[in-house]
Amino acid sequence: MTAFTSTPPGSLDDPEVAAEYLRLVGDGDEYGAIEVVNGLLDAGVPAPRIMLDLIAPTQGRVGELWAANEWSIAREHAATAISERALAAVSARSAARPTRGRVTVACVDGEWHALPVRILGEMLRLDGWRVDFLGASVPGPHLVTHLHQTGPDAVALSCMIATRLPRAHAAITACRSAGVPVIAGGRGFGPDGRWAHRLGADAWAAGAQEAVVRLARDWPPVVGDPYGNGFLGDDEYTYVARHRGDLVHGAMARLVAEYPPVAAYDQRRLDSTLEDLGHVVDFLAAALYVGDPEVFTDFAAWTAAVLEARGVPATALVAGLRLVRDQLRDFPAATATLDAGLTRIAG
């Protein structure tokens, strides 16, 4: 039973509402979380406000708590599942018959953060669109098959992590080759959507509300040459992508000499370290693909903060970056990008 059952709040401006909802999802109280959103609906709070001003920011806070090592990944997953159920409860009471066209909403292949784009799908339904929500990690060929089968007016494509940019590019090109324009969203496309435009998306939106406005006002755009941005990634990107395993294991083999505390790691910490080195190479490849070191420097700064919250000093990450760089001495763009990451960490 929630604190708001008997006297549901009439405004999301009350910070206690968000605090209580966060507590409920953090405690795994699905029924309590749904009671909160139902109470808000009963009090006349519009469904879009509940989605955008309660569920979405709470999910952002959940991610921050995980990054700060205050919540485990299991607790974060459980909270996300409850927010998905709360979103479904809001949607069930706010259904509207379609009056506009048809939109396919999906995450790019390898992208598993589906709640933000699910919120977009529900917002589009409320605005009168018929929505095909395909969910997380949709392989490009399957997405294109769906487009040919359903003939939508647009594709809304989400990418939250920059390492998926090469796959996002392939998906955008394939959609536009099928004659379907693409609106991109998600922080993986970079500040102001700069990498979405670089990859050929017809439009970019900073959030669900902006995407709804763009689709209602500026759609459909004229789909130009789908291959106009079709050849990103040079020899350095190709080398790094193809030799990912060699770079990761080469750095891991030398890490004890560069960072001696690794010698005392148990298997779990060794596995985590190997995974972190994989992320280093993946973000390096993404930065080389779009030709923007900021993809990598932002990752390096964020990773340093996450590791510090878990008791791993920045010197460990610095050691890993140097060991990857040592294997790429003949690749000037890659080494310059790694050096930029090292400078960012030092700063």
TrEMBL record:
Entry's Gene Ontology molecular function annotations: cobalamin binding; metal ion binding; methionine synthase activity
Domain B12-binding positions: 100-226
Gene3D superfamilies for this protein: Cobalamin-binding domain (3.40.50.280), Methionine synthase domain (1.10.1240.10), Phycocyanins (1.10.490.20)
A GO CC term assigned to this protein in UniProt: cytosol
Gene Ontology biological-process entries: homocysteine metabolic process; tetrahydrofolate metabolic process
Pfam family of the protein (one): B12-binding_2
Matches recorded under InterPro entries: Cbl-bd_cap, Cobalamin-bd, Cobalamin-bd_sf, Globin-like_sf, Met_Synthase/Corrinoid, Meth_synthase_dom, Phycobilisome_asu/bsu_sf
Keywords on record: Bile pigment, Chromophore, Cobalt, Metal-binding
Protein family (similarity comment): Belongs to the phycobiliprotein family.
Protein name in the entry: Methanogenic corrinoid protein MtbC1
Source organism of the structure: Pseudosporangium ferrugineum
Highest classification ranks of the organism: Bacteria, Bacillati, Actinomycetota, Actinomycetes, Micromonosporales
